[in-house]
Every structure is written in structure tokens, then in C-alpha cells.
Write a structure and sequence with these properties.
Layout: E1 2-6, E2 26-30, E3 34-40, E4 54-56, E5 63-64, E6 68-74, E7 81-84, E8 88-97, E9 108-117, E10 131-133, E11 139-146, E12 159-161, E13 165-173, E14 181-190, E15 201-205, E16 220-221, E17 229-235, E18 244-254, E19 266-269, E20 274-277, E21 309-321, H1 323-350
Parallel strand pairs: 1-2, 12-21
Antiparallel strand pairs: 2-3, 3-6, 4-8, 5-6, 7-8, 8-9, 10-11, 11-13, 13-17, 14-15, 14-18, 16-17, 18-21, 19-20
Length: 352
Amino acid sequence: MISLCCVGLLLGCYSAFVDSQSQRDVTVECQTDSVVVRVGLTSGSALPVDPSGLLLGNCPPFSSDGNTAVFRSSLLDCRFMRMATASILVYSNELSYKPSPGFNSIPFNELIVCSYNMTPGWAPPVFNPALGDASGFGTLVFFMDVMNDDFSAPRVSTTFFLGTLIPIRAAVDQQFHMPLILFLEECVAATTAVLSPSSQTYSLINNYGCLVDGQVANSKFLTRVRSSEIQLVVQAFKFTEGEDVYIHCQLAAWDPQQLDPTKKACNFNKTTSSWELLDDPNQNSLCSCCSSICTQRKKRELGAGDQGLTHTTVLGPLKILAAAQASERGASVKKELSDRLEGSSTQDERSP
């Protein structure tokens, strides 16, 4: 059985596509930018459900009192999937159960869905401006830019050719906040500025900071200049249709003394076929989960007293051209320059 409670500034929230014969006692409460899922542990079976066998995405329960397991999660955590249309935003995840000896032996999976009508005056987390308040210590301002080759300034042109490297810089302005370290938890390349079911997508970074594109390309994180900034290069590619590429990323600013498998930046070393931690090679073990599923040691809600803040941003459009297009573009640029020089010369001749 699935029930749903909607609160906040939303016009519509719905659960969807659950087994009609399911008798699971699951309650979903969709809030403005988070979700609360409650799972009854004792109903419908002689043996109770083991709370340690429950996962929402890759997150364990936030709490359990023996009768009910409770998940509390931001819609940007626990591997919630996000899809959007012009008027509806949908976040979905899977609630799964793997039984343990002495407990209910029937595994199950339930789809958890929060669907939001985009009402005037409300914006979902992905569209928030690059401002946020963390721990009450001050405002954090996030930046993300495509840079020139030496990272000295933002790049003027966003046109790249297949196989070349795209320099990307992300940073957080700490202002009066405690010292923070910045990570890219997830980056997805897509054909659209807003992710939707019709978008073609390609994963660049996943699993909380694993640069998976480095397994098949020359993409990698670069040595840090400062902890509040992270630089990387992504080898340019294009989708089968169209030239425009948008890069959607989730950034996380965190306490540099509290690194764990979900707060890391990992490069893939193709020579050794192993994962390496960008910030401290002595802790490469934090990247070992990049080949499986990375989970944090203890799930906590963001709020007063926490050590971090996340922000989602989009870069683009980046225009990716093939070699033939590069040649055509070069000829076009030369002609334009020649025309400008000729026009300038003519103007000079007419000047007194």
C-alpha cells in the first residue's frame, strides 16, 4: 500500500507505478525540496522487515524505532533521478529491501515518485540561484565556467572540436564561512538545458565524485590550486544528433576534515586500471567504491550545524564540431577576417 502527503508551495504530488498487489505499508511525504518516506516494519507478515536491509536509492534509513523505518532526504541526494517537462518536474527513486536471516524473507522494490507542478514563485532545487546559507556562518556563492586553456580566465568561445579538451572550473566563494573543500558529486552531459525524458544523456562524473569518463577518454581532475576550487578537463564528444551539449553538475562544499566515500574527487589511472584520490594518494581507498556503489558512513540531514551545502548548475550550450566542420569553420573565419581587413583598408583610404 502506498500513500502520499503533499505540502509546501506545490500544486501536485503523486506516487506512481507500484505493484497493485503490494501490501507494503509505505508513506511518502513530498516537501518543497526534500522527501520523507516511512516504511512499516511489522504489517502484513509474521516476521518483521529488517530496517538494515532497506535502502532508498543508496541511502539507509535515517531512523528506526522498531515499528517504522524513516528516510529523510533532499531531492538532490540518495540518487534521486530528475526529469522535467515544461510544466512538471518529477523526482523518482527506488525503495528496495534485501532480507536478512530471522526477518521477513521476501525482498521487494517500490518506486518512490514526487511530481511537482511548477507554480509561479516556486523553483525546484535544480533551478535555484547560486546562493545558499550553510551552518549559519554566511552566504556561499558557487561558480562554474568553461575556461581558456591555462585557466587564467573564462573562455570567450564555447565552440570545441571533437577530441580536444574542455577546461572547466568550479569554485565556491566562502566569504566568512569556515574553510571548505569543493567537490563535483555528479556531472551529466545532455542535449538539452533542462533534463527531460527526450534528452540524450551521458555520464561524466557519478558515484559521488568518480570521473567515469576518464575510463574511456582523457578526462581528468587537475591538481588543486586551492581547496575551494576544482578544475578538470573533459575530452570533447558529441551526441549522434545536433552539435549542442549541456553539462549538468551537482557541486558540494564540505568540511575538508571530513572526507568519506561520498565526499571525494577520483581519477581513473588507465595504466594501473585503478582509482586514485585527487587530494591525498594515501587515501585512495576512498575511491575503491567507484567500481561499485559509494555510500556515506552515516546519513545526515542538511541543516543548522551541518558542514556542507550542495548546488546544481548547468554549463552550455557548448558547440562540438567534427573535423570536416572544423575545416569549413576555419575557411569561414579566414574569409570573415579577410573581409574585415579589406573593409578596414577601404575605410582608411577614404579617411582624410
